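G., the chain you wanted modeled:
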Amino acid sequence: MAKITKEEEIRQQNVAEAVSKAEVFFKENGKLIYGCVAAVLVIALCVLAYNRFILQPQKKEATEQMAQAERWFQAGEYQLALEGDDNYPGFEEIIDKYGAKAGQAVYMYGGVAKLQTAQYEDAIALLKKYKGEDPILAGRAQACIGDALVELENYSEAISWYEKAAKTTDNAFAASYLMKAGIAAEAAGDSAKALSFYKTIKEKWMSAPEAMEIDKYISRIQIAE
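Predicted structure as tokens:
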């Protein structure tokens, strides 16, 4: 039989003491520990049940109810898409009933429809709720906020949203947002800022449609100066 060294003996004593302390701890706090474990399990089961029996069915129902509103939207029937009819709900009712459960697209649809029907404040409120992860759609929502602000003649804030849209998208679509920012800057009387947007289009987005006549916009400001 191998001889136990002093170090090994000490290690075994430490282990035994630790095990003994653990046993004492569980004896004294067993009910509390098991109660906490049971509570965590109950919460987890409640979350799973909510997702399966409430959240998922609501998402499915909301998606199904959105189908007709989407068709109206695509047809340019924006007021009908918002309000619905006697047979189908519109985006307003769907948002009130389901909110984000209907998916982020409902805020985009509703916001753009509000914009198209000159309900600018409501459009801004809905579009700000859009939290989609796709950069092209996110940029589109931000630019639409800018459009609504232009209609309200809040040019400085509109410019900020156009710049944000261009940065979010960062592709050829950015040129159209920078063009809008330039026009808004001109409307605000800030020619220097407008010129900077137009020059950015010329330097960075020459393949974009907006770049085809950008020299005209640049020359107009330079001549005026």
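The chain has ten helices and no strands.

Shout if anything looks off.
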